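User: My advisor, Dr. K., asked me to get a structural model of this assembly before our group meeting. I'm new to this, so sorry if the format is off. These are the inputs:
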Amino acid sequence: MDRFVFLTFDGLSRGAVYAAFALALVLIWRAARIVNFAQGAMAVATAYVGYSVADATGSYWLGFVVAIVAGLLLGAGVERVVMRFVDHSSPLNGVVVALGLVLIIQGVLGMLYGNEFRPAAAPFSRDAFEIGGVALLSRYDLFVFAAVGAVVVLLTLLFTRTPTGLRMRAAAFAPDVSRLLGVSVGGMLTLGWALAAAVGSLAGMLVLPTELGLHPTAMDVVFISAFTAAVLGGLDSPIGSVLGGLLVGLLLSYISGYLGATVAPMAVLALLVIVLLSRPDGLFARSKARTA
Amino acid sequence: MSALLEVEGLTAGYGAAPVLHDVSLTVQPGQIVAVLGANGAGKSTLLRTLSGLLRAQKGRIALEGQDLTKIKVEHLVRHGIAHVPEGRGVVTELTVEENLRLGGLWRKPQPSLEPIYELFPRLAERRHNEGHQLSGGERQMLALGRALVAQPKLLLLDEPSLGLAPKITAQIMALLRDLRDRTGLAVLLVEQNVRSALSIADEGIVLSLGRIVTRHDAATLVDDADLRHAYLGF
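Assistant: The format is fine. Below is the predicted structure of the whole assembly, which you can bring to the meeting.
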């Protein structure tokens, strides 16, 4: 029983990171109808920048902020310089370009930083403290929950309470009509990519200290888990992606806890295939016909 | 009186073959001009070119003497032109209130929606419903109301009667005439429904295969049987 409780908390903590990363995927999907397969590589790139600053200055928090700002800039840059010029007549074009970006980013990171694992320090202790005699949560887990929770709340407020959020939603749903009403659709798209990449960077900064460390391909498996989470949530739903993230986190935690850690990556892929085959619109899909 | 909208020698279309050929027209302040013609005559293309969704290949578009030919679509509303596209363009995923707010977001400070709710009490009742929950008539009211939030000088209306019951079409036409009388709003009205368009228009322009074939006072177009037979088919 203790083991089950431990695995549950561990799964929720990992799931929170997947949720943030899945949320980033959903943000871009909603804005541009592209699954950003380059998101993992982009997050790693900004994490390298963040940790370089942290190493140089001795301040983890400065590096943390720099990584997220780098995410904003990288996201905006990728949209302005690359994605804007992709022919969207076939959805495959964006996917191929994104995969190309992965190869470029990982190649450049390898050249700049080398292809070995570099340590990624955590700002808080990862030793779990005991609650009722069971080691459940570390300070770092609490930090992860707080950071992801803050992102979810801030994004919700942005989209539902601010004029910019309304513009972003309208631009995504009905670009031509939005332009006629004075909305700069291109600007909203750039902003969407910037926000999504920043959330991706945050997720990267949160997950890397719990993995083997910094490596150009360090986010590949996390990406697959988060993509599965986003698909579980229906790809179009921010709430769905958060629930999907927590679900995938729990499932992986139980599987690696009871069946062994080597089974987990295969289990994610199996889950992804099952969901795509049986519920391609996600677990929480409600049918809503789009008319006119 | 100087014209509100002046269009000279407009040629536009999709790809190499233009849809509009050398179209010139003027709209005076407070005037309702109906653009009539069969399917494929270029009526919607004309409106799309005026609002910049489609680039003019030749010609000039000016509002109050200011050249708007190459303006960005999203800046058009700031110059006082509101375009209600065919199919109404209600953002169906957003609520009625969000759609209306969207119409005035570019204004600082943001305009009150109350005058719109007074004009369309039905929209006030449904303000928290999403666009996809509305009937066709409600959507048309919403699209119209959203355009009016921006307090435009010129309204470009594409087929407002499409798919609506005659009674609702008549209501909307009456409302347009009333708005023109009260606020001096000018309207360029594209319609297939010739009778209801001419019932409120001051002037009618007939487009055929992308060219203006005739323009007359609305009353003349309605009364002159030869003109009606030749250009309007009734």
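One thing worth pointing out at the meeting: Chain A touches chain B through 22 residues (CB under 8 Å).

User: Perfect, thanks a lot.
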